Task: structure prediction
Amino acid sequence: MRILLLLPLCISLFAQAPSSKEALSMQRPLSAVISPDGKYVAYVLSRTNWEDNANESDLYLANITSGISLKLTASRKSASAPTWSPDSNRIAFLSNRAGKQQIYLIPVAGGESFQLTDQETGVNSFEWTDPANLYFLANDADSAALKERKKTYGELSIVEEEYTMAHLWRLKVTDTPKQKAERLSEGDFHVASFAVAPDAKSLALVTKKNPDLSTLGANLEILDPATKVRRTLAGTRNNFAGLNWSPDSKEIAYTTPGEVENSFYANSHIEVRAVAGGPARNVSPGVDEQPQIVDWTSRGILFLIRNKTASAVFISNPQAASVQELRIESGWAINSVSLSKDLQRAAFIGAATNQNLEVYTTPMGTWAPAALTTLKTQWSSFKPAKREVISWKSKDGAVIEGILMTPPDFDRSKKYPLLVIIHGGPTGIDMPQVTPDSYYPAEQFVAKGALVLRPNYRGSAGYGAKFRALNVSNLGVGDAWDVLAGIDDLAAQGFVDPQRVGSMGWSQGGYISAFLATAHSDRFKALSVGAGISNWVTYYVNTDIHPFTRQYLKATPWEDMEIYRKTSPMTYIKQAKTPVLIQHGDNDKRVPPPNAFELFQGLKDNKVPTRLVLYKGFGHGINKPKEAMHVIDENLRWFSRYIFAE
Result:
């Protein structure tokens, strides 16, 4: 019987919903880039390689006029990051088909791709603005001294003293494969990102002391590629991101939270600086969210923000520092936006409410999206749950939104089990688009006769800076208020059975479920904690992002142990009663596995049914299909037992 429980669940059980394997096999759009001449869109679709147990991706080319798409790559490994040549005749992309990730080049008119770079450590990212040259970031190779140490002493690392830095390289674009690249930056610093000026005479760099995520602070530098001389334009205690040059190559735009102390949950804004020097100008005044720059065009700086569970598009006039919202249809969520050179057409990935993501193109100036992909056909054999945006008031009066998933034949006069799936972040967000299941089998839960609630609890993106800060010094506590209030609101409407409620989540969602498992255990029949925090002290001393804890809890443990005690699930472990499934990668640096072991042992000592599954060799995400299928199926088995009494 125990052996049978470990087998993937039969797909015929739920004709209404895709099985875990079917869901993980569904293709997803990953990026879309329109050609400068506006005739084509290069896009990337995911592909699940079950034979090699790998998630891979392929490059496609769509003709906008005909709507016909061609598959450009069919290797056993991935293609990603398509980038057009300025003349629209070629596409450069990244691929790991030969081992390390390198830049490949393929002609649009037809022909085979070939490997352009032969970088020892591979290529991290690249840009093709200058017609004659590609610029890319690559990690430094081991020094001769480090290679000798490894020979003598084996593998070791000295914490916070040794780092692998990334630096900038330039490569002439020819038809010669595997060329040697020219190094443009050198030194004991890390290049986090870069952008090439339209005139190709300067590059903007974001540099840091090291790539450690716990190291805050960055410089904005200007590099002359002819002389390799760098000069610092600005510095910040936080970060610069989204570098974008003005069309005349005289100014730089970027996003930054500025000099605030709490950059993990503060708003960012768009600043502009003259390359010649001078003060920064905020050109996104009044925007209460995290802007994402699309492009600096002759008409202004186009940018996106999250607007609750949808997207909003704006254009900023950088001279007047004024912002105008552009119209898109209500309820749409979009990303990966790119513009043709003449600004007449855009490409993007997006979906409306209760629709799945597709690659689209639309004329600029009017909202008329035309799909270039037909990924919706993957759902033709199934009846996906209906998504609805709902809202309720939390304990302290905060208005919380969430996504309620219901079966196609939902009857409000009946009582349904309720399963809560909590997103990570905490600045993640759930939206009402149809997406294949990952980690948690939401569609299968609904097919089995349950409702699914996905709350955008306090701290979620899309609701402004004040909302994102509502869980500061209140992690877990306020988050639990939001989840419990949502459950109570649905139960009060009469269609939820309060005796059959479960909760689950990954990362921050796993932490909230762990908090519910201890501080509010009597409200649930079963819970699942994925890569979740159980003790903030344990987390703080082990994680790779120490500033996160200091900013949200406003202290180190040694300064205020009480706030760490108040917000830690382990503080309430003796109150735990509800069965808890724990899942964790055994090489997780973000939420290290001691958190899982601490919760597991505490539950065992208090005679609470629990199960700990460690995924060998995985970090914070379970990113191989076979193990990802086990994550989903294990959750389905766990809640089928305790919620559906199977």
Notes: Residues 1-14 have pLDDT under 50 and may be disordered.
